[in-house]
Design brief:
This protein has 130 residues and is α+β, with helices and mostly antiparallel strands. It contains four helices and nine strands. It has one domain: RNA polymerase II/Efflux pump adaptor protein, barrel-sandwich hybrid domain (OB fold (Dihydrolipoamide Acetyltransferase, E2P)). The longest helix is centred in the C-terminal third of the chain and has 9 residues.
């Protein structure tokens, strides 16, 4: 069984993204479990600031030596910031997926997609069952 970090203040998707909703700003990244499964991350394709996305859209792509994974947003919104450090050092996601390894920030236009997300306890249980 894994011992992945799963911060309590975040919500999680079954596709292994995490979401931090703070007022009308959503920060999105991938979980410790996801970075562990992907192995060495070598490239992150970031969206453009100002791009708009609907809930369920792919907002970024994370590529590792093993696979490429779409990063999906559970909420609708407009990109207000991307983590440009990932363009030079995508491996930050491997070492710090929750703090320095965040991927994108959105100004939320519809947060209802966050309602059905898992909390940390549910996500940990979900991961142990895989």
């Amino acid at each position: 069984m894994g011992s992945w970090k799963t911060p309590e203040n975040l919500k999680y998707l079954r596709t292994d993204e995490w979401l931090l909703l703070d007022s009308d700003t959503a920060t999105l990244g991938i979980s410790d479990y996801a970075q562990d499964q992907l192995n060495d991350i070598v490239f992150v394709e970031l969206p453009s600031v100002g791009a708009t996305f609907a809930a369920g859209d792919t907002v970024a792509v994370v590529e590792s030596v093993k696979a490429a994974s779409d990063i999906v947003t559970p909420v609708a919104g407009t990109v207000i910031e991307v983590n440009q450090a990932l363009e030079r050092q995508p491996e930050i996601i491997n070492s710090d997926p929750y703090e320095k390894g965040w991927i994108v920030k959105l100004k939320v236009s519809d947060a209802s997609g966050a309602d059905g997300l898992m909390d940390a306890a549910a996500y940990s249980t979900y991961n142990e069952g895989r």
